[in-house]
């Protein structure tokens, strides 16, 4: 496909004539902010650039584009059908780009906060299943029974401390802790079994019969002499 400038009323085409005049062609950048600045500068109604959209160097002050948003070459500024942009126009464009950047950042922060809130609610829901409320009422009865009689004899002329208590909460033990404790017991049992079956010189000490059985030597004294 032939490269041609997408700017209104620009007739530059990538050919030998354009190369002879030193005209270069730039594809629209992938950076969202810079791409939006270029699109707004071209200012074509109901038009969106694609991978085949190009802008020639005639529309940049120095014939090349920069990456600094404060640079006048950040976006195309030279258009034959437009009046020359003033310093106020550049400042206004910069403020608009800054506002859009802040708006995008705030939207991103809001999305992150909502995601963290969802994770927190899910975590509370999952871990909350480990606990159950004791609705039997026995807890309140026990508290009431423990209160001295003086607190039950309430008169209108005396300020009596109000004693309150929360409903009892009975929590089931974490299944991971139960499993961990079970594995520790199993490890201790296996270590004890290993200690019992571990062979050593103590098993044949002063026992010639065991010495002959395990080593083939006639006596334990010979075993000590050899080893």
Walkthrough of the structure:
With 227 residues, the protein is mostly helical. It has seven helices and four strands, in the order αβαβαβαβααα. The N and C termini lie far apart (90 Å).
List the helices and strands and how they pair.
Blueprint: H1 16-20, E1 25-27, H2 32-42, E2 54-56, H3 87-128, E3 131-133, H4 138-146, E4 169-171, H5 175-197, H6 208-215, H7 220-226
- How would a textbook summarize the main sheet? 2 strands, antiparallel
- Output the radius of gyration: 43 Å
Q: Give me the count of strands.
A: 4
Rounded mean pLDDT is 76
Order of strands in the sheet with most strands: 1-2
**Portion of residues in helices?**
40-55%
Portion in beta strands = 5-15%
Looking at the structure, what is the overall shape? Answer: elongated
Structural class: mainly alpha
Oligomer: single chain
Task: Looking at this protein, list some descriptive labels.
227 residues; mainly alpha; two-stranded antiparallel sheet; 7 helices; 46% helix
Offer a concise description of the structure:
With 227 residues, the protein is mostly helical.
